Amino acid sequence: MALNIANCPRCGKVFAKGVSDVCRNCLKEIEKEYELCAEYLRENRGATIYEVSDATGVSVRQITKFIREGRISLMDNPNMGYPCESCGILIREGHLCGECRTRLTKQVQRVTEAMNQRESKNEAQREEHKPGTGYWIKKDQDKEKTDSIRPLKD
Ligand SMILES: [Zn+2]
Ligand SMILES: [Zn+2]
């Protein structure tokens, strides 16, 4: 079995990558950090992630990892959550809060719709483009409504 040498992403030291992503030293440190958080939460069930971070000195990022890994239970700690990756509001599932998820979904929809419309417009151009019928005026009105398609040029 070949040794997989890598830089530890946490401390930057070279280590033999095995089961863990970080070096043995960091693994120990992380275990200690976990113990600190778990202990604090045992006594402060209503704590938020920021309170835990302040009290233990463990980074919000690392605590987020503990939650994602299921080591810190959100069920047992009703006020715990981790920051939305887009706006930073505390959430309890997924990577984004509801608002950011809706916003991103809408953005994706708009892009998809714009692409679809562009495609059908290209087809329309091929099949229906008859100068002088007023067709393009109507299309330009549509364009203003959707606001996402550039006028086709002949
Ligand atoms: Zn390390
Ligand atoms: Zn958000």
Note down, in words, how this protein is organized.
- The protein is mainly α and 154 residues long.
- It folds into two domains: 5-96, no CATH class; 99-151.
- It has five helices and four strands.
- The strands form two sheets. A two-stranded antiparallel ribbon has the order 1-2.
- Helix 1 packs across helix 2 (49-56).
- The longest helix is centred in the C-terminal third of the chain and has 31 residues, at 98-128.
- It is flat and about 70 Å long.
- 9% of the residues are buried.
- The structure holds zinc ion (2 copies).
- One zinc ion (ZN) binds next to helix 4.
Give the topology.
Elements: E1 4-7, E2 14-17, H1 24-43, H2 49-56, H3 60-68, E3 82-83, E4 90-91, H4 98-128, H5 135-146
Antiparallel strand pairs: 1-2, 3-4
Helix pairs in contact: 1-2
Bound molecules: zinc ion (2 copies).
One zinc ion is lined by residues 84, 86-87, 89, 96-97, 99-100.
